[in-house]
Amino acid sequence: xxxxxxNVRSLLVRRITTTVTALGVALVVAVFAGAxxxxxxxxxxxxxxxxxxVAIVLRKGSDAELSxxxxxxxxNLLRGHPQVAQGPxxxxxxxxxxxxxxxxxGSGLSNxxxxxxxxxxxxxxxEVHVIEGRAPKPGTNEVAIxxxxxxxxxxxxxxxxxxxxxxxxxxxxxxxxxxxSSYESEAWGDVEVVRHALGREAGVSSARIxxxxxxxxxxxxxxxxxxxRMSMKVMREGEYYAKSSEQLTAFLTGMGLAxxxxxxxxxxxxxxxTMNGAVANRSREIxxxxxxxxxxxxxxxxxxxxxxxxxxxxxxIGVVVVQLAALIKFPVMNFQTFSEIVIGFHATPAVIxxxxxxxxxxxxxxxxxxxxxxxxxxPVEAMRA
Amino acid sequence: VNIATYSRRNLFRRRGRxxxxxxxxAIAVLIFCLLRTVxxxxxxxxAQAEQDRVAVRHKVSLTMQLPKRYVEDVRSTPGVKxxxxxxxxxxxxxxxxxxxxxxxxxxxDSWFDVMDDMxxxxxxxxxxxxxxxxxxxxxxxxxxxxxxxxxxxxVNSDIFPGDWELKVVGIYQPLRRTVDRSTLVFRWDFxxxxxxxxxxxxxxxxxxxxxGAGHSADIAKAIDKKFDDKDDxxxxxxxxxxxxxxxxxxxAVLSAFNVIxxxxxxxxxxxxxxxxxxxxxxxxxxxxxxxxxxxxxxxxRGSVVGESVLxxxxxxxxxxxxxxxxxxxxxxxxxxENMASMFPYFHVPTNAILLALGLAVGLGVVAGIVPAVLxxxxxxTDALRRLD
Lengths: 385, 388
What we know:
The structure holds two protein chains of two kinds. Chain A is an alpha+beta fold. Helices cover 48% and strands 21% of the residues of chain A. In chain A, strands 1, 3, 4, 5, 6, 7, 8, 9, 11 and 12 form a ten-stranded mixed beta sheet that branches. A two-stranded antiparallel sheet of chain A has the order 2-10. Chain A has a two-stranded antiparallel ribbon with strand order 13-14. Chain B has helices spanning 3-11, 15-48, 70-75, 111-114, 122-130, 139-145, 188-192, 216-226, 239-244, 250-282, 284-292, 297-338, 350-375, 380-385; strands spanning 53-58, 66-67, 80-88, 91-92, 103-106, 118-119, 134-138, 152-157, 164-174, 184-187, 202-203, 205-210, 234-238. Chain B is elongated. Classes of the chains: A alpha+beta, B alpha+beta.
């Protein structure tokens, strides 16, 4: 086995080539890790909103709360099952609508979700806390807004108001956080006030059901979906959020990964060029090593190791640099739910490991052919050259 | 020795390395062109949008309906030549052959007068006016559903439950390449009379053809003013702005594309600089000899930069050729068929090709600078002493 120090020193001697190749790898790994972090960011935003012991009921055929409608009389049918937790917070019927929010910075309009929720709506979700101002009083035109949209749209700051219909203003009295979930991009008001303004008194958009335990879900779903009086679809809340964003998630991460993989081909070629050059320049050295008794396999391993070290140094730089992306948050429209969610880059240990493995694979793939060439150097000829 | 000849000959000394570099540059150019094409074609919609058409929607929400009687008020606004209306149907393919297509319930008497960038055969249009469940669809959608004129087609909706049975009475022809060829329109009266529709006698939005594009902002204001003291206020905007609301999130993706484009150019420059730097290091001795027999340092630097530009240009040209073949031949038709609502037309724009080639040459120069300086940094005597 050739000492690793030999490889490290070789890399140090050819500083410029080493730096340039490592930077190339770093850029590719940054793109790769960025795509993975974005995916984690979306998962984070949506997972936080979904709980295992909560079922969401939509009209059959609807994929989103926005297009769903449930008549008032069905709410009691949904509630009257043994699996449902007792008390008023057992079932929450809410009306959901998107309105045009005007960006304060003048960049135009975006959709903002307004959720009309009953008095129990806040308590139903323990992760929701008012962090500024106060919670809206039930039965009034007061609303609280999520922290992700607070201050970004006209009329959506504490003390201001926005219209749901001409001359029916909603008064903002508080800002809430919701554990990073997509609720933070919504405005919450009273269910009666909101649906009255919309002329939709006859029903709600969706119902959330608190189950006694998460194991009750299948039984509850079978009973509701089998109920011939209504035509409803029951999903776990987490499953609903995952499904309602699967196109967006697939689109964003698919695109990011596709580009990372395409660019990585270029970076692999870069690594191959560097290692090829290293082999060509050092054929005398390699010949000497062989003459000293190092086997072909040790030479092969040694050069592969050198490529690996080079790529992992680059990968580590890339992973560190891309952490800066965690500072970026940006809004994207989920075209399945028609609403805007604010997502960011979220690093997990798994993402970092994947990125480093990715850089290692790039190094090995780029270094393989040069390493094979190195192992084939004939000691006699190399030393004569 | 001519400087270009020297640069060119140098390329063939390490043939394997040159080929690898050319391939790497070609890949970078390919990705760059692909990204530019996406950004360009997406923005093309804005440039090509009908300037003389405005859309009128509910001021508060896209999902809120307007009373149908508003149509007459819009029609009577000075400057409005024709107006029509539509309802969003939330169309879905029951067999899920396509993930998404746009379906609207529209007025059969005025829709194609306003949307005159789609042409319908007069006989088919007359047939539509006689057929209550008649639908007119784009040729792409007809292909997806495997239907032709005279066939029945069943569509679902995520808003209005059950099967909707429509009869295809016509196929519209797009007159502009940015027209979506996967749209379905069927009669609003048929839709409005259906018991499943709770939003009776209301419309989702209106479209108006106006008199001259120059004062569209004034006309939009005049329309909105008409409904200013009504319960349902309106928001009038250009048709393009209206469409953008549905694709709004894509703008964020496009800015990500711009960042990735830059990263790719950076990687390309690094790879190129690396290759040239390695060649230069190997030739230290040789450059010493050249200078000893009288070639100026400037000449040597020029030959290094020339070598870099040459590699970049060959790689760039290869990349462009592959791009044109790939996008215009394979990817374009696929995108036009499957993502028609975003990219009705998907071809590499000429300016992306020119930009890519220009950048390849420019970055070739940039990549050559550091190695060129390195090539002449040593004293001639030191360079001559180095043998490896």
